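User: Predict the full complex structure for these chains.
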Amino acid sequence: MESSPSGKRRILLAAAFRASIPVLLGYTTLGLAFGFTLVAAGLPWWMSPLMAVFIYAGAAQFMGIGLITGGAGLFEIALLTLLLNARHAVYGLSMLEQFKKAGTWKPYLIFGLTDETYGLLTTVKPPAHIEQAGFYAAVTALNQSYWVVGCTVGSLLGSALAFDARGMDFALTALFIVLLVEQMRAVRRFEPYMAAIAACALALFIAAPRDFLLVALLCAIGFLALLRTRLDGRKSVPASPQGPQGEGEAQ
Amino acid sequence: MTRLFAVVVIMALVTYFTRAVPFLFFSNKKPPAFLDYLQRYIPPVVMTILVFASYKDIEFTQAPFGIPAAAAGVLTALLHFWKRNVLVSIVGGTAVYMVLIRVL
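Assistant: Here is the predicted structure of the two-chain assembly.
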C-alpha cells in the first residue's frame, strides 16, 4: 500500500516462487505421468489440461481416468471423488483463520487447497511487510500453473511419441503410499490404521467390488466412532461459547 | 464427448465442494466435537483404505505373484520414510514397477 507497489509485487512473487520450488518439481513430474497415463488410456489429450485447470486434484484425476474408461456412472464418479477428496475438507478446517482476511482471493485459495499447497501454506511465511493473502494467492497460482503445464506437456508428448506407458498408473498407488506415510508421521496412533484394515477386510466380504471404497469407509467411520473414548482421552470436550469467531482454534 | 465434459464438470464441482465445506459451515462456529474428532482420524483411515484398494485386485496366486506391485510399493514407502521427498518416492516407485512388470 505504500510507495512502490511494483517493487513489492516483485518481492512477493520472488518469495512465492522460492517457496514453491519443491512443488514445481513434484507437480511437473506427476503431471507428466498423468498426461501420459490419460493418453495411454485412450482419452483425448485436451482432457488433461481441462482436468488440471478445473478439477486440480491429482489423485482424483488419476482415479477419473479409470472411472471414465471403466464406464462408471456420473453418480458413482461424484461419490468416489467426494470420498477421495474428503481429506481436503480437513485442510480447510485448519485454514479457517488464515483465509478469513483473504478477501477476493478467498474463493481461489479454497479452490487451490491441494495436499501440497496446504503443506506449503502451513509452513512458509510471507516476507515482512507483504500481505499474507497476496502471498498465499501467488503460491497457490504458481503451484497450479506447474500442474497445468505438467499435465498438458505429458498428454501432448504421450500422443506424439510411441511410448509404452504400461505401468505408469502405479504413480497413483505410489501417491497414496506417500500420503499414507505422511499420515503415519503425523498421526502416531495405531488404532486408525487397524480400524481401516479391519474395515477393508470386512468390505471385501460384504460389499460388491464396485462398492468397496464406500463400504470400507463407512465401516471405518463406524469403528472410529466406537474407538472415540480410547483415542480421544478427554471424556467430554467442554463446548466453548459459540462466538462469532473460533479464535485460537486454528493454530 | 458430452460425457467427458459432464465428468469434468461433476468432478470439478465435487472437488471444490470438499475444499469449501469447512468455510461454508464452520466459518462462524466451532465444528461439533464428534466432527472435530473424526477430522483428525479420517485422513489416515482414508489413505490406508486407498492403498488397500490399490492392491486388492492384484492376482497373488499366479506369476508374477504381485511381486512388482508389492516390491515397488515397499520401495516407495521406504524411500518416503527415508528422504521424505514426494518426487523421489513416486518416480522411484513407479519406475521400478514399470521395469518389474516387463522383466518378471
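Residues 235-251 of chain A have pLDDT under 50 and may be disordered.
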